[in-house]
Specification:
With about 475 residues, the chain is an alpha/beta fold. It has three domains: about 90 residues, Winged helix-like DNA-binding domain superfamily/Winged helix DNA-binding domain (Arc Repressor Mutant, subunit A, Orthogonal Bundle), CATH 1.10.10.10; about 240 residues, Type I PLP-dependent aspartate aminotransferase-like (Major domain) (Aspartate Aminotransferase, domain 2, 3-Layer(aba) Sandwich), CATH 3.40.640.10; about 110 residues, Aspartate Aminotransferase, domain 1 (Alpha-Beta Complex). The chain contains 15 helices and 14 strands. The chain has an eight-stranded mixed sheet, with helices on both faces. Strands 11-12-14-13 form a four-stranded antiparallel sheet, with no helix packed on it. It has a two-stranded antiparallel ribbon with strand order 1-2. A hairpin with an 8-residue loop joins strand 11 and strand 12.
Length: about 475
Amino acid sequence: MMSPIASLTLSISDNATPYYLQLREQILAAIREKRVSPEDKLPSSRSLANMLGVSRSVVTQTYDQLVAEGVLVSKPKRGIFIANTSLITMPLESLPEAKSAEPEKTVGYFDSSADHSVFPHKAWAASMRRAWLNPDPKILMGNYRLGFPQLKEQLAKFLYSLRGLECGAEQIIITAGNRDALQLLQHMLKKHVNQWYTENPTYPPINASLTGQLEHLDVQLGGALPPENTSPWAAVITPCRQYPLGISYSSQCREKWLQTLSEKQGFVIEDDYDNEFIFHGRPVTTLFQAAKHRVSAEERVFYVGSFSKTLFRGLRLSYVVVPKAFVKPVLESQKQLGQSASLPMQPALSDFMASGAFYRHLNKMRRHYRMKRDYLESLLNAHLSQWFEWEKPTAGMHILLRLKTPYADDPEISGFLKSYAMTQGLQLSLLEDHYVDPMLATKGIVLGFSNTSENDMECWVNVISQCLGCYFDG
């Protein structure tokens, strides 16, 4: 029997609809539009999960629900098939619909993701065509557990040219986002590590991605210092541009980390989340590269990067650069966990990089984001300088505003600001929400500018200004 995979166009988006419901509706749509027929065999849950870059449980949940509804049928030792029932010939309105909540009011926010409105779709489409004119059979079979080799070669060249990071393609592992990368590394290091640390403050999903009891490293003006714990540990840090504070670790702080690693006291996972976009000055050397010049330290730093910030969020491809001694252990962990990075997109991305389109896009976006940063700062100077202070970022995709004294001393201001903004359709990212204990945190707001339109910037800055004027001035 033929497999309908060639006629199915399935994709998963990071929106409010659960992944399994998105997949369910797309399979039902394929049936309605007669792109599949009764007795057609669907891809296995593992291969479809790999293709979509999602957990296998998403696909199994979708299949189980459609089997229960009589749309699909599971045949032991054979797979999942389109049911041979009258359902296939039912009109559109007769097919079962998933229950959904009432549509929610649209809420906006200062978005620090990639601006997909200026993505080079034609260049990307050309790379997709070239990559799939004569596809690698191993891609179709899902045999590249650690990632498409040509993509890893392109990444090694990219990291050296942009970040000065020296590594071999064999040290690069392609993952399905940073969460997948952290979970893979935690699984691989479980025999070497007793305690995990994250920065305080940090990006909340980092804490959510790690299992077990976490400890936290307070970030001071010069960065976070390494743990004094003598028990084996690992720490996830952002030394080149700390999130959300936007600072770079000082040379003294970095030296303490390197010295500690040289003494074989821990491991570092270096998250280099948006350092492709530097507007002024020279890029900060990665800790991964600096560790190469220290005995023992180079085998204790793992580097994590992502294409979500450089291309588009829905791509769901990230990567880890691991020390040579850990390549085989990572492969073993990947086998145990199951492959989750989408292979079909990787040849297209490799071509996109090899053609030079990726580098042209980065240069364009660097200028684009710099103009957005400057426009947002002009609005801040005009409307919010009475209440906030900030430093103009020389890199990255967000600005951090800190409430000035005495406004920051008001214990109710953060709650009022967040609630008022929500009534106006704006969801604010408070600095306090990035701390372990919000009550002890500095008061402020994290404003993403990279994927926020100028109209929205102006509207939402006015919302914040009106809120604070109402609260403090009556």
